[in-house]
Amino acid sequence: MRLATFYTAPLLALLLVSTPALADENSSAFDANGDGQITFEEVMQRLETSARATFDAMDRNKDGVISDKDFDDVREGMEKLERWFEDLLKPFLPEQEETGHLET
After folding, report:
1. pLDDT per residue over 15-53, tens digit each?
2. Higher pLDDT, 93 or 35
3. What is the pLDDT of residue 27?
4. Quick one: CA torsion of 66, 67, 71, 74, rounded to 10 degrees?
5. What are the phi and psi torsion angles at 64 (to 5°)?
6. What is the C-alpha to C-alpha distance for residues 15 and 38, in angstroms, rounded to an integer?
7. Looking at the 3D structure of the chain, how many domains does it have?
8. CB atoms within 10 A of CB 101
9. 101 within domain boundaries
10. Which of 20, 39, 54, 104 is the most buried (most CB within 10 A)?
11. What is the mean predicted confidence (pLDDT) over 75-87?
12. In a domain? residue 71
């Protein structure tokens, strides 16, 4: 499986979470022309800024392309963050069995 396929859903989720307008309870943040309807174009207009920032952050060598190497760099960074978070929470979690599953 190509890494680009594997990371499409997490990238989309990251874009949606990082978009301040989606945190608003008021849907009018997307209704650019105020007609009471939200079109696909209006949604994409709001997401463009976040999408560009996320794309640029993932394009580590700034060549305008997100390559498998760029995805590897992002994956490595996410794994490091996950290990840091696990270490941070370890004192507060129940003991784990040797299989790595939490005891119930």
Report:
1. 555 555 444 545 677 788 889 888 888 888 888 877 888
2. 35
3. 63
4. -60
5. 80, 10
6. 19
7. 1
8. 8
9. no
10. 54
11. 87
12. yes
With beta carbons less than 8 A apart as the criterion, state whether 39 and 46 touch. Answer: no
Q: Which residues of 50-66 are buried (b: 16+ CB within 10 A; e: fewer)?
A: bbeebeeebebeeeeeb
For the residues of 13-43, what is the DSSP string, one character each?
A: HHHHHT-HHHH-S-GGGT-TT-SS---HHHH
CA pair distance 30, 51, nearest whole angstrom: 15
What does the alpha-carbon distance between residue 59 and residue 47 come to, in Å, rounded to a whole number? 18
Residue 78 lies in domain? 3-92
**Which distant-in-sequence residues (6+ apart) come within 8 Å of 55 by Cβ?**
66
Residue 77 belongs to some domain of the structure:
yes
Phi-psi region of 64 (alpha: psi -120 to 50; beta: other; left: phi over 0): left
Q: Exposed/middle/buried for 18, CB within 10 Å: 0-12, 13-18, 19+? A: middle
